[in-house]
Amino acid sequence: MARTSSPDYRRIPAVDRIVDSPEAAELASRSSRPFVTFLVRRVLDNLRRELAESPEKEWPAPDLEKRIHESLKQEFHSWACPSLKKVINATGVILHTNLGRAPVGDAARRQLEEVASNYSNLEFDLARGSRGKRDVIAGRLLETILDCPRALVVNNNAAAVFLILNSLAEGGEVLISRGEMIEIGDSFRVPDILRKSGARLKEVGTTNKTHLSDYRQGFSEKTRLVLRVHPSNFKISGFTSKPGLEELSALCASRSVPLVEDLGSGCLIDLEADRIEPEPHPRESLSQGADLVCFSGDKLLGGSQAGIIAGSSRHVQRIRQNPLFRALRVDKLALAVLESTLIAYLTRREESEIPVVRMIRTDAGRLRERASQLASRLSGLRTDLTVEAVEGVSVIGGGSTPSQNLPTWLLRLRSSATSATGLESLLRQSDPPVLARLDREAVLLDLRTVFPADDARLVDILGRIGQ
Fold this sequence. Notes:
By secondary structure, the chain is of the alpha/beta class. The protein contains 19 helices and 18 strands. The protein has helices at 15-19, 22-29, 33-53, 61-80, 106-116, 135-146, 157-169, 190-196, 212-218, 245-254, 282-287, 313-320, 324-328, 332-346, 350-353, 355-361, 364-379, 420-428, 455-464, and strands at residues 88-89, 93-95, 124-125, 130-131, 150-154, 173-177, 183-184, 188-189, 200-204, 223-229, 259-264, 292-296, 307-311, 385-397, 400-415, 434-435, 437-439, 442-446. The strands form five sheets. It has a seven-stranded mixed β-sheet, sandwiched between helices. The chain has a five-stranded mixed β-sheet with strand order 2-14-15-18-17. A hairpin with a 3-residue loop joins strand 7 and strand 8 (188-189). Helix 2 packs across helix 3 (33-53) and helix 7 (157-169) crosses helix 12 (313-320). It starts with 14 loop residues before the first helix and ends with a helix. The relative contact order is 0.13.
């Protein structure tokens, strides 16, 4: 049996030797010696692992030290430069959870910059010259847009659901249909948040059918709340039924138990006008009898991450008085974006100012023109790259409108120099990164989710990657 050679760790220089080198000293002058020492240890640990995997590999001392210093510079750059960065979303998923969901428009960005770089009247009443409440910043707009008595904002919709349950149902039972026991992103499950809120879950009905009588039979002296959850990230079809909101509301009112509807995406536009299966509008849910609704701010609404609670003044006030409200409240930057977004709805400028709405409503014909123009520019750029404009579909995403597609136009890329997987990797590692999708032996770029202002940058990236 052949003997396996052992890694010679003696070839690795001491930590202090690297830290005392001119190259490391230059990095320490831009940070600190302890930080550079930390990075050197990381680099040398990685090198030891590499030696263990390939003990027979020869590295002359000068090459080894050069490699160490190059790795040290890369480590420094990865720590000293922001890792959160702009990407070009060419996936065709408008609300891409992994890519930050809704991008904000120019008006919201300007408002964000103004508030972020200055002091603000976040909790100061300018009219009275005394302390104010941040609630009113978005609350008054939501109350007008949704035509409801009271609205409140917390840091996301999961927080909104939790706070509602903890405030109104702690120690009691919450009725929920088995068909609405959903799981959303990152293994977040409705039953789990119910338990953490201090309320007890009581399931009624079956997965595909829940009748009004199921709710009626589920009521007891311990029932504190009925929770209805809109299944925005999946769809059950076929032999299904559930009671209408109005009849469920009447039943809850007869038992003096609040009806809460978690709408998830929070859609304020008419999707039917865009030939998309509609999502429930919060205003309609409230008018049909829901005591409270809650929904996200950074999905179909197109604003910042936020959880919006709206409806009964009495119930919202109880939620507002919960000590946990302060722990879950939204910060000034998110409020700045949300307020600007809501003003766009109030003044009917949502299509021009909110990118999510604009992307949903962009006509496929306009995308075809862009795709054809870009394909023409790219075709003569490189001999190894084949580019063609083809039809395809986009999706809204973000747990909204499942199974609904939007007609779009794509750039289909093939390279004779690398595989489709290799080309996708090169795009992903470009500056800025371009996120695309793979289709057999090609890379697809969906222009519905690429801002027109990035078209020129896209051409530049495709012209230089892999060169």
